[in-house]
Amino acid sequence: MARSAFLLVLLSILSVAATSGAAGNAGASNFIKSKCSAATYPDLCVQSLSNFASTIQQNPRQLVQTALFVSLSRAQSARSHVWKLTKFEGLRPREHAALKDCLEEVSDTVDRLSKSVEELKRVHGAHEKDFLWHISNVETWVSAAMTDENTCSDGFSGKAMNGRIKSSVRARIVDVSRVISNALALISKYAENQG
């Protein structure tokens, strides 16, 4: 839990630093746009990373690090949202079971993304063999995090599950899945260019 709190504080510091210096940072903005063209959802990629332009500058590793932080932050927010939904009165048994399963999956996502953030730090200054090992671990955990999100969504499939709970969870999970997918694309591109 302490690590999660630390990461959220770090993310808010990055956000403040980003918004205070973003005005004259056209080079960083263009860098983000150019790198985001390789993402699965380019517009979302630009939108989610632009606030951090002054932190990212034109540093590929910082770009990937920030993309992971954004993914982690949104996954933590989704976990909190799903947890609150499990406390609603009047849930149908299937909804409650799906929410509990989803909460477990999203918690796994948060755990895997936290590990990815830590592992990416080890890439800095690593020799080629070590770099490939660390970046492979990052890609594995981020891929697994995406699978967790998809598994959560699958729990709400079928017309019997239609309603506000399903819509609310799906909206959050789709958003998290997309930022994770973008982060994975950026990591893969970074690994190609460094390896």
UniProtKB/TrEMBL annotation:
Superkingdom classification of source: Eukaryota
Annotated GO MF terms: pectinesterase inhibitor activity
Endpoints of the signal sequence: 1-21
UniProt xrefs under InterPro entries: Invertase/methylesterase_inhib (IPR035513), Pectinesterase_inhib_dom (IPR006501), PME_Inhibitor (IPR051955)
Keywords: Signal
Segments forming domain Pectinesterase inhibitor: 27-186
CDD domains, per the entry: PMEI-like_3
Pfam families (UniProt xref): PMEI
PANTHER family: PECTINESTERASE INHIBITOR 7, PECTINESTERASE INHIBITOR-LIKE
Similarity comment text for this entry: Belongs to the PMEI family.
Descriptive protein name: 21 kDa protein-like
